[in-house]
Amino acid sequence: MNDELELSRAFVVELEDIYEKLQQEYEQVAEELDFSCSGCPDNCCDSYFLHHTYAEWAYLWIGVKQLDTAARGRLIERAKKYLSRCEKALAAGERPQVMCPLNEGGLCTLYRYRLLVCRTHGVPAVLKRPDGKRLNFPGCFRCQEIVEARADKGSGAVNRTPMLVRLARLENELLGNKRDSYPRVKMTIAQMLVQGPPTLGRPHCDKRS
Ligand code: SF4
Ligand code: SF4
């Protein structure tokens, strides 16, 4: 059994609310630091990001399905090229730096459906892991320069913990409260595009040999 995993309206509402709350926190910290991406010579859409939830994968595909057949075909072709370039870089022991297949002319073509990492990169952030360890993210190189130049070294940071706890809860519910029984997601956006929408087989614990 390999049924497509689709988000019900309630899951979409919850995920969009998580994104919105993160966005609000992001904007608050960005405003405090007088930081924006405007005029940046870089474009973070070529960063090698991996994504970790079926929920976001399914949400991305809500956007992909709104593209017409030709646009979707072009997107999948770009995603395949992206993967081939990443494979070469990884085989050479390098971290890939390839423009995301969703980026056209510097802009995200599925902006509304972009993933959490795309929404959080930039300003400083903190995260408390379930084991209690606190992780600090200093923000992008440009934001770090701004923080460094400030007399107070910028005290603000987005607290990602509550939103990631909500996302983990949503993911678990989406997987029938059997999150640990399914294969972990660790994929680039290009892999999510080439593989198609997420599907679920039986959880590991239900499989018979
Ligand atoms: S997040 Fe930072 S490095 Fe990336 S585009 Fe914005 S300003 Fe530039
Ligand atoms: S999904 Fe959009 S915002 Fe995220 S890396 Fe791709 S083009 Fe950039």
Tell me about this structure.
- By secondary structure, this protein is mainly α.
- The protein is built from 7 helices and 7 strands.
- A hairpin with a 5-residue loop joins strand 4 and strand 5 (134-137).
- The model has no long low-confidence stretch (mean pLDDT 92).
- The protein has one domain.
- The structure holds iron/sulfur cluster (2 copies).
Give the arrangement of secondary structure elements:
Blueprint: E1 3-4, H1 9-33, H2 54-64, H3 69-91, E2 103-104, E3 107-108, H4 116-120, E4 125-128, E5 134-137, H5 141-149, E6 158-159, H6 161-174, H7 189-195, E7 199-200
Parallel strand pairs: 4-6
Antiparallel strand pairs: 1-7, 2-3, 4-5
Helix pairs in contact: 1-6, 3-7
Oligomer: single chain
Structural class: mainly alpha
Coarse morphology: globular
Count of β-strands: 7
Query: Number of helical segments?
Result: 7
Summarize the structure.
This protein has one domain (3-35, 44-195). 45% of the residues lie in helices and 9% in strands. It has seven helices and seven strands.
Descriptors for this entry?
single chain, 209 residues, mainly alpha, three-stranded mixed beta sheet, 7 helices, globular, binds iron/sulfur cluster
